[in-house]
């Protein structure tokens, strides 16, 4: 069995879970950030097209993106160097389309990304029934690439239109899922992956949107060295690079008076912090021992793949079940998202906070997450490898009925969700405070 084979052994369960995850970062971010003084007291900002920002700050952006590359090369393990040909070089004579493409390729994001002026309204506000943008106005991907995409609403913004800082930053936290990180690898479909220098996709199916985005949203920094020894692909993550890119862009935008882009880039940065608050984004197989996983790997190499395949199914089912619990009860997690009492319990923000605080906390939570799922959900959902939860609509409909007469189990699951949403809120606020401070906004 090849190393790529082990990737499938451990990764597949995460991959199929992602296919069913429709988590809306924006709606959780509204609750997490709405009472934060730096956001609540911020003046409304004027919507600005990306081309206007790039034109105004072209020379400054050249220096910033060069400094980001230098930082990443010096600070990040397994960081794939950006090809010199992709460096952003100021050229005031070029047209807006050429400048925008130069910027996007220097960031190594999808060059067909829309970057439209829009907002995702707060779901707690009155429903909007007219004047909405279509999914195709926001994303180059098919709507099927993001489950529950049809539940999102998008309102257009006119250049110069005033909008609240909360709306801008919350909207942007969901935006990376709309295709910014899709198909960027050497073996991805489409032409630009072969130019970006990121190498082949570390894990998952290169033909699937969700799999192609996963290495940008996950960081397996705390796996056992023995496991990483036979799965070195797990070391390849760009989540820290993405956070640094967007947070530094936000700081620059704030310092240069482009507050709309300050808040929008800040929201993009928060997306990656928020992703790492989930155990399945920081651990290959939460709750499973290295010895067990290596044993299944060895048996599969000897031509006995049954236990491996069953474990793949179980990991996938538990991930789906966890997603369903969060989707079902997110609206009841408002207090946990808003609670700021734990914000100061964490170390002062620094360049390693995302890895050493957020990802470490999430990886450590994996054992408890599995234990709660196994103790609280029907065994056939989380312990029977013959069951497939990859069609979650029916399961979601059964979840509330299943737990209605099980108050103790329901309470355990809700406590687990509240803990994670509390982490989501605290780390989002701490990251945003650091960005605002570095941007000299207050």
Structural overview:
The chain has one domain (3-44, 171-438): P1 Nuclease. Helix content is 56%, strand content 2%. It has 22 helices and four strands. Strands 1-4 form a two-stranded antiparallel ribbon. A two-stranded antiparallel sheet has the order 2-3.
- What's the domain count? 1
Q: What is the residue-averaged pLDDT?
A: 88
Q: Beta-sheet strand percentage? A: under 5%
Largest sheet: 2 strands, antiparallel
CATH architecture classification name:
Orthogonal Bundle
CATH class: Mainly Alpha
Which fold name fills CATH's third level, the topology?
P1 Nuclease
Query: From N to C, what is the helix and strand string?
Result: HHHEHHHEHEEHHHHHHHHHHHHHHH
Rg, nearest Å: 21 Å
Q: Determine the N-to-C terminus distance.
A: 56 Å
Structural class: mainly alpha
Count of individual beta strands: 4
Query: What spatial order of strands do you see in the largest sheet?
Result: 1-4
Helical proportion, percent range: 55-70%
The number of helices is 22
Keywords:
22 helices, mainly alpha, 442 residues, P1 Nuclease, two-stranded antiparallel ribbon, 2% strand, 4 strands
List the helices and strands and how they pair.
Blueprint: H1 3-19, H2 25-33, H3 37-40, E1 45-46, H4 50-56, H5 58-75, H6 96-107, E2 118-119, H7 135-138, E3 155-156, E4 162-163, H8 165-172, H9 193-196, H10 209-217, H11 225-230, H12 239-255, H13 259-275, H14 279-282, H15 290-301, H16 306-329, H17 334-338, H18 353-364, H19 366-376, H20 379-382, H21 392-404, H22 407-438
Antiparallel strand pairs: 1-4, 2-3
Helix pairs in contact: 1-16, 2-8, 2-22, 4-6, 5-12, 8-13, 12-13, 12-22, 13-22, 15-16, 16-21, 19-22
């Amino acid at each position: 069995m090849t190393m790529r084979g082990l990737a499938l052994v451990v990764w597949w369960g995460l991959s199929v879970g992602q296919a069913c995850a429709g988590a809306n970062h924006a709606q959780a971010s509204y609750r997490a950030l709405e009472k934060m003084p730096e956001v609540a007291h911020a003046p409304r900002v004027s919507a600005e097209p990306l081309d206007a920002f790039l034109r105004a700050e072209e020379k400054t952006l050249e220096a910033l993106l060069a400094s980001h590359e230098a930082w990443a090369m010096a600070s990040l393990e397994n960081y794939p160097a950006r090809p010199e040909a992709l460096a952003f070089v100021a050229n005031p004579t070029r047209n807006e389309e050429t400048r925008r493409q130069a910027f996007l390729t220097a960031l190594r994001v999808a060059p067909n990304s829309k970057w439209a002026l829009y907002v995702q309204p707060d779901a707690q506000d009155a429903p909007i029934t007219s004047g909405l943008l279509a999914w195709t106005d926001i994303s180059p991907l098919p709507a099927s690439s993001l489950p529950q995409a049809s539940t999102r609403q998008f309102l257009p913004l006119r250049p110069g239109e005033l909008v609240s800082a909360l709306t801008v930053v919350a909207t942007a936290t969901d935006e990376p899922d709309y295709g910014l990180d899709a198909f960027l690898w050497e073996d991805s479909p489409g032409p630009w992956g072969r130019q970006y220098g990121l190498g082949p996709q570390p894990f998952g199916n290169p033909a699937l949107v969700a799999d192609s985005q996963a290495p940008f949203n996950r960081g397996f920094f705390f796996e056992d060295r023995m496991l990483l020894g036979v799965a070195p692909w797990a070391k390849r993550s760009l989540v820290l690079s993405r956070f640094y890119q967007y947070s530094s862009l936000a700081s620059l935008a704030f310092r240069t008076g482009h507050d709309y882009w300050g808040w929008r880039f800040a929201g993009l940065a928060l997306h990656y912090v928020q992703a790492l608050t989930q155990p399945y984004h920081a651990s290959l197989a939460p709750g499973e021992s290295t010895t067990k996983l290596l044993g299944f790997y060895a048996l599969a190499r000897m031509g006995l793949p049954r236990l491996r395949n069953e474990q793949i199914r179980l990991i996938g089912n538990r991930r789906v079940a966890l997603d369903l619990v969060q989707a079902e009860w997110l609206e009841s997690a408002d207090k946990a998202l808003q609670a700021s009492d734990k914000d100061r319990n964490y170390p002062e923000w620094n360049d390693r906070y995302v890895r050493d605080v957020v990802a470490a906390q999430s990886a450590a939570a994996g054992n408890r997450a599995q234990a709660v799922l196994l103790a609280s959900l029907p065994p056939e959902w989380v312990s029977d490898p013959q069951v497939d939860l990859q069609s979650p609509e029916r399961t979601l409909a059964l979840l509330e009925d299943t737990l209605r007469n099980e108050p103790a189990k329901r309470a355990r699951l809700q406590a687990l969700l509240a803990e994670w949403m509390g982490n989501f809120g605290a780390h989002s606020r701490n990251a945003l405070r650091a960005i605002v401070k570095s941007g000299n906004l207050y």
